[in-house]
Each structure stands twice: as structure tokens, then as C-alpha cells.
Design brief:
By secondary structure, this protein is an alpha/beta fold. It has two domains: about 5-95, 3-Layer(aba) Sandwich (Rossmann fold); about 100-215, Hexapeptide repeat proteins (UDP N-Acetylglucosamine Acyltransferase, domain 1), CATH 2.160.10.10. The protein contains three helices and 23 strands. Strand 1, helix 1 (about 15-25) and strand 2 (about 35-40) form a beta-alpha-beta unit. The longest helix is centred in the N-terminal third of the chain and has 14 residues, at about 15-25. It is globular, with a radius of gyration of 17 Å. The structure holds coenzyme A.
Length: about 220
């Protein structure tokens, strides 16, 4: 029997997680998960035909009812808030749905922590580690031996070289590139289309080619 997944979030990233579950089921016959609906604090409207079953505070009630959860909340620029929210909803580890598109390539040596989502055409190389509830979007590449902390967001088309390290809730924006061995601190952001050649300290935003300091992330 399929595990019923409630997606935390909504339009955009949450819907893409939904699509990935549907694609795995309908195209590849992988019935491990089925979409039960969404939890969303801002809307009660159906999302892509699925019900909003409640708010984030309702997680514990649904845990008791046997549901699984996917954390789809990764607003770029609110990186500190992502951690606070993630800790507040407090999903038990065994109730985190780990969703990997059948269209992605994941090296067998990759460690994928609970709650990770990997969307179609991502490529994850040898000995990488993807931290809990990180979201890896379509067509992104993660080089060998790279390590991502919890709740990271890797936007579509971005490229991480080998031995890259990301802290807690760091974001790589659309089509950005990180050279090998660079470190991005907790809650840091690399802007869209940027090329990172050095480390980003925690809580800072870097943009451009070569990427340079733009600002601190507001708390
Ligand atoms: C990093 C980011 C959040 C910065 O946005 P911001 O704080 O609103 O920055 P602003 O638009 O106010 O720009 C401030 C300055 O930085 C520059 N800048 C902003 N983003 C830049 C980027 N990605 N590359 C180069 N320069 C950039 C602007 O041109 C501007 O320069 P100026 O002061 O000389 O005019 C934004 O660039 C970004 O990448 N957004 C995320 C897009 C994305 O990946 N979405 C994923 C959806 S799934």
C-alpha cells in the first residue's frame, strides 16, 4: 500500500514535488508514495486539484493519523526562517518522505538523508551527501564528495563542482555555478546565474561573475 504524503507548501515548489510523485507512479509504476494533499498557512484553495488539509500547525495531528510529509518550503531570502519553521513543525524522522525522481541519476554511493526531494534530470555524483529535507530541482548537478546541510535549496540548472560544502538552509539560485571545494555557510545565498570562486560566510548573499558580496540576509 502507498504511503500517503502531505506536502508542506503550495504553488510552485510544492506542486513540483507533487508532480514528481505522480510521475514516479504513473510513468514508472513506483507506487511507494501517493499525494494526500497540502498543508499551507496562507491558502485554503485546492492546489492542482489536491486539498489543502490544514495549516502547518496541524502536522502532529496528521502524524497520529499515519501520514508522511514532504517539506517544500524554501523561500529564497528567508533562509533563517526556513530553519525556524522546519524545527517548529517538528516532523518525526520516520515520517519524512524521501522522494527521488526516477528520471534523476543518483550515484549508488550518494547518501540521501530523510525528507530529501530530487527532481527530474538531476545528476548527483559519487560520495555526495544530501542533508535532510533539501530540495534539488530539475537539471541540477552536484559534484562528487559534495556535502549539503539540512533544508538546502538547489535551483534548476545549477552546478556544484566537487567537494563543495553547504551549511544549513543555504540556497543556490537558478543556473548558478559553484567551483570545486567552495564552502557556503549556513543561510547563505548564491544569486541566479552567478559563478562562485570562493567561500560565502554564513548569512551572506553573493551575486555576479565572479560572485561578490551583495548583502546580509535579514533575520
Ligand atoms: C540573489 C537574489 C535573491 C538577489 O535579489 P535582490 O536582493 O532582490 O537584489 P536586487 O534585485 O535588489 O539587486 C541588487 C543589486 O544586485 C544585482 N544583482 C541582483 N541579483 C543578481 C544576480 N543574480 N547576478 C548579478 N547581479 C545581481 C542587481 O543588478 C543590483 O545591482 P545594482 O545595485 O548595481 O543595480 C536574486 O538575484 C536571485 O537570485 N533570486 C532567486 C532566483 C531563483 O533562483 N529562483 C528560484 C525559483 S524556483
Amino acid at each position: 500500500m502507498s504511503k500517503k504524503v502531505i506536502i508542506l507548501g503550495g504553488i510552485g515548489k510544492g506542486e513540483q514535488i507533487m508532480d514528481c510523485i505522480l510521475d514516479n507512479r504513473n510513468t514508472f509504476g513506483d507506487k511507494e508514495y501517493e499525494v494526500a494533499g497540502f498543508l499551507n498557512d496562507y491558502s485554503k484553495e485546492d492546489i492542482s486539484g489536491y486539498k489543502v488539509l490544514g495549516k502547518l500547525e496541524d502536522v502532529s495531528r496528521f502524524v497520529d493519523e499515519g501520514y508522511y510529509f514532504s517539506f517544500g518550503i524554501h523561500p529564497i531570502g528567508k533562509n533563517y526562517a526556513i530553519k525556524e519553521l522546519f524545527e517548529k513543525v517538528n516532523i518525526p524522522e520516520k515520517k519524512l518522505a524521501t522522494i527521488v525522481s526516477k528520471r534523476a541519476f543518483i550515484s549508488p554511493t550518494t547518501i540521501i538523508e530523510p525528507g530529501v526531494v530530487i527532481l527530474p534530470f538531476a545528476y548527483i555524483s559519487l560520495n555526495a551527501r544530501i542533508g535532510r529535507c533539501s530540495l534539488i530541482m530539475a537539471q541540477s548537478i552536484i559534484g562528487h564528495n559534495s556535502m549539503l546541510g539540512p533544508c538546502c535549496f538547489i535551483a534548476a540548472g545549477s552546478i556544484l563542482g566537487s567537494n563543495v560544502k553547504l551549511g544549513y538552509a543555504a540556497s543556490i539560485c537558478l543556473g548558478a555555478t559553484v567551483l570545486e571545494s567552495c564552502h557556503l555557510g549556513d543561510f547563505s545565498i548564491l544569486g541566479a546565474g552567478s559563478m562562485l570562486l570562493k567561500n560565502i560566510p554564513s548569512g551572506e548573499v553573493f551575486v555576479g561573475n565572479p560572485a561578490k558580496y551583495l548583502k546580509n540576509i535579514s533575520r
